[in-house]
Input
Amino acid sequence: MEEINELETTLLNGLVEKYPSLRSHLPHLKVSKRQISGFSLYVYFSYVDFNEEPEMINSLFSNGEKIMIPALKEGLSYVVDVTAGMVEHIEFSTYKEKWDGTFGEYQIVESEIGNQ
Output
């Protein structure tokens, strides 16, 4: 299993601002798999040494933001999937641009869609 990277940590910190009870989950999360599909990257999480009873939260969280990276003209959308109180995965999706799943430098900006 891999450690969570800086961008994933930033997005998960946004999640716990909305759902504070999930903060105690963060030290226990590891990346179990990264799956690239050409237009998307799925980052799946596993819990390590987590014994709490999760609060029953079901959410697809994106915080009205998108991620700008040099390789993509339109950037990326993202959604953090929380199912039955457990952080399951983050899905990063392009706006129909081919992408190799690497980030490099990034900037999180407010999505125009979120402002409508």
In short: The chain has one domain: 6-115. DSSP finds one helix and seven strands in the chain. The longest helix spans residues 6-18.
